[in-house]
Amino acid sequence: MNINRQAVVVKAKQPFVDWINSNPVEPGQKRPSFTLELVNRDCLVLLIPEFDSNEEAHEDVGYIKMDIFEESLEAWYTDEYFWPKNRDEQMFDEWFTLEIHSDVIDTVNEPIMRDDLGE
Question: Cα(14)–Cα(5) distance, rounded to whole angstroms?
Fold first, then answer.
């Protein structure tokens, strides 16, 4: 069943992977070396309202880019001390790409469960 949503897939670019790989590790631990392919195996996906064009969808997501940025950073390092200090929309666009998908089909015959933690 088609639903009245579009999907936004947040994919990392190389600068994000470079940041992941530059953060400190615990003493005695081997420094991991993540690749762009590995980081993008499990991407953040957002559901947004339906729009008539991808431009409108990108504009809608633009308002929450900093929230997406923080969510992505926290997924790798919860200590904000290690996060980039001067985050802005330009840095977001250098670190991530947003793919808009207009066909979203719900294949499950159960209600969607919402986890509104942090809101």
Answer: 29
Structure-token pair, residue 29: 């631990």
Q: Is residue 7 helix, strand or coil?
A: strand
Structure tokens at 115: 């986890």
Question: Please, which pLDDT band fits residue 43 given cuts at 50, 70 and 90?
Answer: very high
Tokens of 21: 């790989």
How many Å apart are CA 110 and CA 107, to the nearest integer?
Answer: 9
Dist CA 79 CA 39 (whole Å) = 19
The Cα 50–Cα 27 span in angstroms is 48
Give the pLDDT confidence of 55-111 residue by residue, as tens digits. Answer: 899 898 989 999 999 999 999 988 999 999 999 999 999 999 999 998 888 898 888
Q: For residue 68, give the amino acid letter.
A: I
